[in-house]
Amino acid sequence: QTVLQGIILLPVRLISITVILLLAWLSASIATFCEPGRGLLPLEGWRRRMVQTTLSRLTRTAYFMMGFQVKVKGKVASLPEAPIFVAAPHSSFFDGIVCALTGMPSIVSRAENLSTPIFGTILRSLQPVVVSRQDHDSRKNTVAEITRRALSRGQWPQVI
Predict the structure, then answer these.
(1) Disulfide: which of 48, 76, 80, 132 matches 43 by Cβ 3.0-4.6 Å?
(2) How many domains does the chain have?
(3) 37 within a domain of the structure (yes/no)
(4) Residue 160 domain-assigned?
(5) Where is the Phospholipid/glycerol acyltransferase domain (predicted)?
(6) Cβ pair 127, 157 in contact under 8 A
(7) Each residue of 102-123: pLDDT tens digit?
(8) 51: exposed, middle or buried (C-beta count within 10 Å: 0-12, 13-18, 19+)?
(9) What does the CA dihedral 101, 16, 18, 4 come to, rounded to 10 degrees?
(10) pTM (2 decimals)?
(11) CB of 48 within 8 A of CB of 157?
């Protein structure tokens, strides 16, 4: 009977996750359409709220459809309390759960990830701090950008 459940649940889960992914892409596309500053300025107003609430809920729903139920114990630190949020060991797709639970903060990501179909658009809407492996000053530039965002007094979202 468990094999039969798996045969039925797998396509339902795959279709649901695909629909959620396409909705996340659409939401990210709308939030960044004709974006002033093209990533150099923080998203504001409805664009920022759309990214934070819609993508957070869609990500939580996607993880739920994969079979993960996450409960938060305690209180997630707010932006004024912690402009930089550290997640470790930062080595798996479970980092997405942390992002969803913390309101979709900016992340540090490789520049190559921005050109990935669908995921690149979603990632761009999170306004990542981009690291280029070809740039010799990349480490120094990344630290400077994280510091600049952390000292922006809430203009930029938290950085994870």
Answers:
(1) 48
(2) 1
(3) yes
(4) no
(5) 70-156
(6) yes
(7) 888 888 888 888 888 989 999 8
(8) buried
(9) 120
(10) 0.82
(11) yes
